[in-house]
Write a structure and sequence with these properties.
InterPro entries: NTF2-like_dom_sf, SnoaL-like. With 125 residues, the chain is α+β, with helices and mostly antiparallel strands. The protein contains 4 helices and 7 strands.
């Protein structure tokens, strides 16, 4: 888990994808139609997301875990992001992830975040 988010932060798409199960599903919580990134992503969608983040935050986005709870094959993770957008706007969001693992690979991620902040920074600009 830690390595996945480190690779995500670094924009290392092949390295991050190598830690995911082939049938991984990443669900970003949000009402349908509320934000373009709400809904489910497969491996290709995750790779696309990493490209969007890398383009929008050229010097990288730091993801800092602030709390972990693990039980069985599930990990609950609190995290904070920080990055400077190409236009100088600061992206600093708070997250909760619920991640499921199987045989050392991530099989699912459920992401909860401040969707208003995402909209304000990435969409409204």
């Amino acid at each position: 888990m830690r390595e996945f988010f480190e690779r995500f932060s670094a924009g290392d798409v092949p390295g991050a994808l190598g830690l995911l199960h082939d049938a991984v599903v990443w669900r970003v919580m949000g009402r349908e139609g509320g934000l373009p990134m709400s809904g489910e992503m497969d491996r290709n969608g995750i790779a696309d997301l990493m490209g969007v983040v890398k383009d929008a935050i050229p010097n990288g986005m730091r993801l800092t875990p602030t709390g972990w709870t693990a039980e069985g094959d599930r990990v609950a993770l609190e995290m904070e992001s920080y990055g400077e957008m190409a236009d100088g706007t600061i992206y600093n969001n708070l997250y909760h992830f619920l991640v499921t693992l199987s045989e050392g690979k991530i099989t699912s991620l459920r992401e909860y975040m401040d969707t208003h902040h995402v909209k304000r920074v990435f969409i409204d600009g």
